[in-house]
Amino acid sequence: MADSTAKTNLDSIREWIVEHKLRSVGCLWLSGIAGSIAYNWSQPAMKTSVKLIHARLHAQALTLAALAGAAAVEYYDRKSGSKADRNAKFLPMDTYSHKD
Fold first, then answer.
1. What is the Rg, in whole angstroms, of the alpha carbon atoms belonging to the chain?
2. In the prediction, which pLDDT does 14 show?
3. What is the structure's pLDDT at 11?
4. With a threshold of 0.90, does the pTM exceed it?
């Protein structure tokens, strides 16, 4: 019974991320900045400007990875998920044939 609850929780989290891609990427960026600043602040030999630059670079790399992940999820959903059926009704393939 715990497996079915875990699956529904994971499915609901996945659905939320699919519906709110930019919000989830923004939250990931904000947590990346906060975590990187917290880590860099523990390094006493660095100047404050260098700490901030490193935090921005770490968060930027994390954001690029999150955007790539969001693109992969979008691709997967369009190929096999519910969006494949939703897009199919808007793009009739037989109507616009270039064979003529």
1. 21
2. 77
3. 80
4. no
Residue corresponding to tokens 């990931």: 28
Q: What is the 3-state secondary structure (H, E, C) of the chain?
A: CHHHHHHHHHHHHHHHHHHCHHHHHHHHHHHHHHHHHHHHHCCCCCCHHHHHHHHHHHHHHHHHHHHHHHHHHHHHHHHHCHHHHHHHCCCCCCCCCCCC
- Mean pLDDT score across all residues of the chain: 76
pLDDT over 80 at 50, yes or no? yes
Give the integer Cα–Cα distance in Å for 44 and 29.
24
Q: In terms of residues, how long is the chain? A: 100
Give 53-93 pLDDT, tens digit per residue: 888 898 888 888 888 887 887 787 777 766 555 555 555 55
Burial 18-43 (b: 16+ CB within 10 A, else e): beebeebbeebbeebbeebbeebeee
